[in-house]
Each structure stands twice: as structure tokens, then as C-alpha cells.
Amino acid sequence: MAANDLSNRSILVLGASGALGRRIARLLADAGANVTLAGRNPVALEEVAASIPGAEISVFDLRDPAQAATPVDAARRAFGTLDGVVNAAGVVAFGPLADMSPGALDDVIAVDLTGPLRVLRAAVPHMDGGFIVNLTGIVATMPTAGMAAYSAAKAGLAAATVALTRELRRSGITVIDAQPPHTETGLVDRAIEGEAPRLPVGVDADAVARRIVEGIVAGERLIPASAFTE
Ligand SMILES: NC(=O)c1ccc[n+]([C@@H]2O[C@H](COP(=O)([O-])OP(=O)(O)OC[C@H]3O[C@@H](n4cnc5c(N)ncnc54)[C@H](OP(=O)(O)O)[C@@H]3O)[C@@H](O)[C@H]2O)c1
Q1: 3-state SS class at 112
Q2: Four-residue CA torsion sign, 51, 13, 72, 103
Q3: What is the atom index within ligand 1 of the atom nearest the CA of 182?
Q4: Is the CB of 46 under 6 A from ligand 1?
Q5: The pTM of the whole model exceeds 0.90
Q6: Closest ligand 1 atom, CA of 180?
Q7: What is the distance between the alpha carbons of residues 194 and 105, in angstroms, rounded to a whole number?
Q8: What is the Cα–Cα distance from 107 to 109, expressed in whole angstroms?
């Protein structure tokens, strides 16, 4: 039996305007979930919502602590409960740490670590079972030169995911760490600072999204990088 039934579940997707977030949101909706699409850019969110009948939209900025509960409240208001959170938001920056601007350093840590933790802090008290997924990435276990802040943020988020698993063991909430390898989403071309090194061709975004949703349904706690290339 599936660990997480998606039918009629209220699921919040952070970064739903992004390449992976929008794909995951569509797959969840196809499985019968009521999705709340959260992100910064209202136009991009509307575009995704146009292909998901009944989807709710929540515009918020992960960098602003005062907006941490905004997407949680939106999901609960729209669908009455909150049964799942998928954190597919993120930004990346490239270059040696010593060359990083203070603003880019703060933004990477805020969007990739503290922002998601603040949203989860707001979400967990409203959840009765269900699941949380953090898209950390291969850098969580393989810190990479030229990506010190991103590696630190993702490793920190992976550590928090394990800690949350332990904290929430009696709650019935499955906490999942998804660690995709480099994926062809264009994320690296949208770096907030620096330029990506030459990278090998990444894995397919549709396949990554499908594998994450499979992991949610099966209640997997860890979806390691290797699981995306098998
Ligand atoms: N692509 C890869 O190779 C790869 C590999 C492993 C893990 N990951 C992780 O997977 C997740 C999705 O990546 P992706 O490739 O799909 O990237 P993407 O297409 O660039 O999507 C990133 C999403 O994050 C949102 N976002 C960025 N800054 C935000 C902020 N301040 N407040 C709220 N939302 C914000 C963006 O919304 P706006 O457009 O509205 O700003 C967008 O929806 C990220 O956490 C990434 O680190 C990616």
C-alpha cells in the first residue's frame, strides 16, 4: 500500500514556478492532490496554474522572515488542511567564497536554508501526518569548490531533514531528502552571481520530478543522487 496517498491532499509546493517545482506540482495534481503553487514571480505562477485546474497561488519571498507563514496560510485557507510540503525553491551562486558579494552569500543561505526552515516551522504545527520533501541535491553530500555557500546551505538543509525525521517520528509525517544530481533545468544559467563551470549533461528534469513523486508515494526518507540515474 502507498505510504502517502495523494488524492485530495492539500500540498504546498515552494518554487512551483521553477523547472522542477512546476513538474512536481503537475504530477501531484494529476494524482488528485490540491496544490498550492508558491514562489516569488506572480506571472510565472499564473502560467503554471493555467495548466492545473483548481490550483491556488501564493506569492511570497523566502528571504523575508515576515512572509514565512504566507504560503502555509494560503494552502490552509484554500483547501482546509495542509498534508504535504515540497520545497523545490532554490538559487545558486558560483565562484570562490572570497569573491562572493555579501548580498549573494546572504541570499543563497536565506533561500536555500533559513527560508525553507522558517516555512517548515510555520507548517509543521498544522500537519496531521503527510509529508515534507526538501530538494537538497548531490552537493549536500559532495561539497563542491566554487559553490561553498550553496553546498553549505544544502548540507545544512539535509541535516535539518534528518533532525526533523527524528523530531517528528511520532507525528506520522514522512520527511524526505531528495538529492538529485545536476539536472537540465537551467538553474545554473540563472545563478545569482558568478558563472557555472563547464558541466556534464545533466539528468532529465521530467525523470527527476517523476522519481521524487514516486519517493513521496512510497514514503522513502532519502532519495540519493544514484536513485536518479538508475
Ligand atoms: N537543477 C539542478 O541541477 C538541481 C540539482 C539538485 C537540486 N536542485 C534543487 O532543486 C530545486 C529546484 O531547482 P530548479 O532547477 O527547478 O530551479 P529553478 O527552475 O530556478 O526554480 C527555482 C524556484 O525557486 C524559486 N525562488 C527563488 N528564489 C526565491 C525566493 N527568494 N522566494 C521564493 N521563491 C524563490 C523560483 O521562483 P521565482 O522564479 O518566482 O523566483 C523558482 O520557482 C532547488 O532547490 C535546487 O537547488 C536542483
Answers
A1: helix
A2: negative
A3: 3
A4: no
A5: yes
A6: 6
A7: 12
A8: 5
Helix ranges restricted to H, the chain: 19-30, 42-49, 70-79, 102-109, 115-123, 148-167, 205-218
Choose one of 86, 135, 206 to mutate for the ligand 1 pocket test, by most ligand atoms within 8 angstroms of C-beta.
Answer: 135
Cell of 21: 517545482
CATH of domain 10-224: 3.40.50.720
Strand-pair partners of 84: 11, 131
- C-beta 134 within 6 A of ligand 1: no
Look at the alpha carbons of 159, 5, 59, 204 in this order and tell me if their dihedral is positive or negative: positive
Element (H, E) at 67: none
Q: Which cell is 51 given?
A: 495548466
**25 Cα–ligand 1 center, Å:** 13
Q: Are strands 222-223 and 173-178 parallel, antiparallel or unpaired?
A: parallel
- Give the pLDDT of the chain (230 residues) as one tens digit per residue: 578 899 999 999 999 999 999 999 999 999 999 999 999 999 999 999 999 999 999 999 999 999 999 999 999 999 999 999 999 999 999 999 999 999 999 999 999 999 999 999 999 999 999 999 999 999 999 999 999 999 999 999 999 999 999 999 999 999 999 999 999 999 999 999 999 998 999 999 999 999 999 999 999 999 999 999 98
- Which runs of consecutive H residues, i.e. helices, occur in 55-147? 70-79, 102-109, 115-123
Phi, psi at 144, each rounded to 5°: -125, 135
**Rg, the chain, Cα only:** 16
Q: Cell 503554471 appears where?
A: 48
